[in-house]
Amino acid sequence: MERIYLDHAATTPLHPLVLNKMTEVQKTTFGNPSSIHSFGRESRKQLDDARSILAKSIGANPDEIVFTSGGTEADNLAILGTAQAKKSLGKHIITTKIEHHAVLHTCQYLEKEGFEVTYLSPDDKGEISLDSVKAALRPDTILVTIMYGNNEVGSLQPIKEIASLLEAHQAIFHTDAVQAYGVKSIDVTELGVDLLSVTAHKVSGPKGIGFLYIKTDTGITSLTYGGEQERKRRAGTENLPAIVGFSEAVLLAMEGLEKKVEFFRHLKDTLIKALESEQIDWSINGAENSLPHILNISFPKTDVESLLVNLDLVGIAASSGSACTAGSVEPSHVLVAMFGSNSDRIRNSIRFSFGIDNTEEQIVKAGKEIAKIVRRFQN
């Protein structure tokens, strides 16, 4: 049985060239980048080169890149670091109800510490309006954190417009770009953001490595202590093999970005057409202006948990986009925010997400298998 992986929004397979690069570093470069001897200098050179590649990928300066253990740590550093640095200026934070839990849970923690958080609601397409941000903004707002592209339904947010709104305000602007990085062309200067989170394993890089872009002169308090690595913003010996692997993955991802985006859109259209040709009931969750590799679909008269199990039995890996806890699939907080807690969509929606290793033939086959399973439920 051919297995078809359609869960690239969760994680992507490691690219073979990235693995080769990481293996080479593991074999030949073991020095601590902070050491001044030749072994350390060799490691430092590779670290600096990787940092420059990653900075260039978003139009930043190398000294604005802080390596982290992934997107979750980058989000935590952005939010907690800003809260600690700016609390004397106010304790109000603005975010949305459809953020990744790395943002939501961090904001919930800060509420327990005396901060006030405004959670903006999306429309039924998963979009946050500029007016809602403007209405929530207060003189004591110190941070606005809104994701670039949603990881469950793919909806894109007006990041550039929000940044323009905040130009004359004290609030720091952070965006979680974990899902958008590698499929959207990002220039932080053009976007106008102060902080931006990224992880490697969404772009065929290794797990356990990411970075936080921190705009020059943006004050942020470190959350780790013990060394002066990352310009005192994140202590700890750098994970050189993963960092070099990350930079290699990014070079590969940026090399043919436009073609890749076109390919993902083609795969999305192929699955839509395949489902349109079948006699089943379904509809798309999310906005037309969305990430090219994510397609979230509601299948009326079905159950998400049963759907996922049946899809897996025929070799198709997909996701509900929500967390599995104690063997049960919890309703997606994103879909609840979009449609309400009583909507059937929160119990019958599946996320399909595409990658560079998928083929058109796989998608056509997946469409037919999905339709067979859904038809059994709906009949």
UniProtKB/TrEMBL annotation:
Pfam families: Aminotran_5 (PF00266)
Family annotation (SUPFAM superfamilies): PLP-dependent transferases
Span of domain Aminotransferase class V: 4-363
GO molecular function: cysteine desulfurase activity; iron-sulfur cluster binding; metal ion binding
Swiss-Prot/TrEMBL catalytic activity: (sulfur carrier)-H + L-cysteine = (sulfur carrier)-SH + L-alanine
Required cofactor names: pyridoxal 5'-phosphate
Stored InterPro entries: Aminotrans_V_dom (IPR000192), Aminotrans_V_PyrdxlP_BS (IPR020578), Cysteine_dSase (IPR016454), PyrdxlP-dep_Trfase (IPR015424), PyrdxlP-dep_Trfase_major (IPR015421), PyrdxlP-dep_Trfase_small (IPR015422)
Enzyme Commission number(s): 2.8.1.7
Top-level division of the source organism's lineage: Bacteria
Coiled coil start-end: none
Keywords, ordered alphabetically: Iron, Iron-sulfur, Metal-binding, Pyridoxal phosphate, Transferase
Recorded family membership: Belongs to the class-V pyridoxal-phosphate-dependent aminotransferase family. NifS/IscS subfamily.
PANTHER family membership: CYSTEINE DESULFURASE, CYSTEINE DESULFURYLASE FAMILY MEMBER
Name assigned to this protein: cysteine desulfurase
Source organism phylogeny: Bacteria, Bacillati, Bacillota, Bacilli, Bacillales
